[in-house]
Amino acid sequence: MEIDLEMSDEDYVIQRAKDSFKNNPSAAKAWMITAKIMYPNNFEVQFEAYQIEKTARNIKEAAKCFSQLTIKFQQQPELWKEIEKLTIALRAESNNDEEKQFMCDMFRHLSSDVQHKLLLFTADHCEDTMEHCRLLLLLLQRFPTAISSNGPRLVDTLISAEKHSVDGNYPISPYRKLLICDLLPLLASEKVKVDLSSKLLQKLLQKAIEFYFCYLGLNSSAIQDSETKIEDPWSNLFGVIEFIGNQLNWEPQLLDFSTNWSKEGYWQKIMKFCQSKSKNYPLEDKQLLYCLSIFFVYCLFEYNSSLTPESSPGQTSTTFIMVEAFSDSTLLNLAEPKNKKRKTDVDVSHVSAPCITAEKPQYKHIQNNFLICMNCWDLLNSSENLQREFIKLNSNLKLDPLLSSFVIDYALYKGMYDEALMFLHKVTEPPLLLQRYIREASILYFKKKYSFCLEPITLALPLLPNNKGNLSNNLIIGGNQKHFHYLPLTRIAILQFLTKILTRCIKENMQHQSSADLSIGHIFTLTQLDWPQEEDMIPPLLEKIKQSRSFQYHNFQNYIINVDILEELTYLWTNQGGQIQLDILPHLGQRRIGTRGADKGVKEEIKQAIRRQITRSNEKLDDLLVSFILNERAQILQTLKPPFSM
Amino acid sequence: MSTEVNLKQGLRKLEYPICAKEALYKIYDLICSRITSIKNMDLALDLMAEFVFYEVDRRGHKRAQSLSPLQELQLVKILYEYFDTLTSESGRNTVFLSLFSGTTINSRLGVLTKFISMGIGIPSTKILSSASAWMQQLGNTSPNSCKFAEGLIQDYFHFYVSSTEKITALPEISLEFTANFLTAIAENYYNTSNKKTTTLPPSKFIFPPQKLLETVTLWISQNTSLCIAAQQKQAVLPPGAIAMEATTPIAGLLKWCILAPIYRQDSKEYTDLHLALLNSIMEIPKSTPPKAVCAQHLTSSINPILTFVNDLKNKQEKKFSEIINEDALQLSLDRFAQAIQVIASVNAMYGHTDDLYHQIKILPFNKLMNIIQNNYKNKVVVL
Lengths: 646, 383
What we know:
The complex is a heterodimer. Chain A has 28 helices and seven strands. Chain A is mainly alpha-helical. In chain A, the strands form three sheets. A three-stranded mixed β-sheet of chain A has the order 1-5-3, with helices on both faces. Chain A has a two-stranded parallel ribbon with strand order 2-4. Chain B has a domain at 1-66. Chain B contains 22 helices and two strands. Chain B has a two-stranded parallel sheet with strand order 1-2. Chain B is elongated. Classes of the chains: A mainly alpha, B mainly alpha. Chain A: Belongs to the Integrator subunit 10 family. Chain A: Keywords: Nucleus.
């Protein structure tokens, strides 16, 4: 063996270790032990020893070397590189790479003290703030004991990093996500009270609310990728309130979102809480505002999502909208057993409580969701202070898209038609226009603005969905209370509702018409869709025709195909029926058919016309009515004119 | 006097080996009771000689015929059952140390070896820990301990070579016993002071069988605290006994590794064993004063190296420069120097340290040895 006497002792010992490594790892390690013990402050020796163990994939030994390096040689750039590799490996979700896997295994063999030091050191040396935060977070996740000392620091860092980041104003920034989704649960999990000022805690709560609300407002396509996806954001948000509320000594009842939690139960707790507070309840106490606001938004989400229930696979989902429907005092009130209040029902004990109906019993919860939202909304608006605070909160949270539909329903329900119209007027998003027109038509009808009804109806018709749907049996209920209905947005259901509105507009406006024939004809046409539910409309009209002894309706051939109506008209025309003059064929003009026998040809023609109409009775009524309303707009409008405007 | 006679008379009515079993219980009563006396002790020793080991007859005369192999086996079984069921550690060790005391061990070593062999094979932690206490009290490098260890090695490494699980698992049964056993084993090989080998020239040293070497290497590699195990746990001894400090196997086994290259024992295990020993040394807990390795014990490697060098010089007429560059010699010296350095650094050496550093100067030149010598000098000067 050649011995280079010029070499320094240290270099010699290290060289020997390196030399023997290839052929004899055990001998190399013996040299390394010797070198390490002789030159404990020589980084190169220690690092070489580590490299040898790492190359040989000796996890335990490498961990031992790495520990010593971390404790003694934090200033060595070569070690930094290694530490960097380690932290990269730790953060990687899956380690297919052999070296990364080794680094992770080695990390597990380090003492927790060294692990802690290592992560803290790395975080402190990290120039990229995001990186720094991620590392600190990793540290806290692995070492819960470090939470109370490093948690608050990380909170500050994340808040200021967010402020200075590019998208500082947008609540779903990566920093915010770390803060809310990763750090807050850690702070919450720590049993020891974390030292955060109440101001900071409120700020955190605010940020959490903003974050989750904004997240919930995202459409599903934006949150498909796993980076941003959050499982069960609501329970996370409730967790945050629970944690922060406890820190701020809030009423425990309001912070209990445990498994038996229900909307109704929580509402009772809020009511109880409000009752327990005296009038001079301190305004700066935000617990009611936050708990109530979050609860309200939660209910609002539930309500909005219940409006479009999930459909079974392969079927198009149907959205429901609240419309004011009809009630008829002459009918028996079968829809709702009166005054039978269920325990869980929220306050609906007004004298003439409006009745809410839905197409099927399984949609009953839509109504419950609405009523809870309404109660929250009323409570939020019951005090100036709450109202002001909620507006302030809302301006940060940007809840308007969420609220927009509810406030219309609310105004509608409360009979605040002008407000409802004002809200509706603001709706300009194309997918929501159909809903807007339907509701506008309905409101205008109830406001008795008959002549204005036609426009929204004609705007709605071209927008009818392809989803066909069925006729509803629930648009009219007995009794004289107000009636609200969750109308499914299907072609038939919408058309049925709109024709019902139009029919009633025409009928109620009939008294102002000099001649009723046009109105009667339109009503005949319109009632055909919802036959025989609208059958009751017909007899008074026939009576009117009898009285005037003639009936002129030149649209007859185009639109009247209902066999029952045709039969009734034919009967009136016959001798037994009273020989009512039917002016239903425009080409016959004003020729009278009065003179006996003189107009035998005319009679025959009418007979033929009626027969022709009967053969058409199987035609699609929806298409027929859509074209009727759209094509005969001017004629329809004529029957809707208010008095003295002609 | 009468109880003594009655006792013996009673036992004499029993046949061997029933009387041995009975005698063991009487012996326990005599020497482990709270109040004991020289008289009781003498009686117990009588009972052992006459009824347990069947060495003397009723008149105290040496029997012409000792135990037959079958009787010996029966006795071993009785001893096993007896010790394995005794619950008090102090009682177990008291009886064990009296049965196999320094004065009687020569004649009883055969039985002892078979008995402990069974303790390893079945196994029994209780029996092995008593045997460990026994080795330690006798001195684990004493000729009797070494002979005893040799007997076990015969059993496990020469007779039952095919089945090694039992012996491989030995540290799990009793770490202290394994440690003391290792110390004794270490002395049996590469050793000129051993009576057996004094007449042999150094080249005819006895080397450990490969299987033993592998087992020892495995034990120490897997458990860095094995070497100091006997020092870590003190056996419970009879009242009044002075506990003897156990010698660790470190120096003895290092000697194997140091001398192996020059005796052309190039089995890979020596490198691994050497590394395992260094690792074990690194794990030695601090103690004041140090007690893990005796400097003189290390010094004993020097002479064989010098003899080897002289042999090369005289018999093969090699030049000194050639000898120095002999790979085997340098490897041997590297290992030696590494060991000294590591032991010294963890402050585990006791005895005449200065003497050791003085003596290594006469060894042929080795760079590492030179470095550690200089370091030692500097350190002494600084101090």
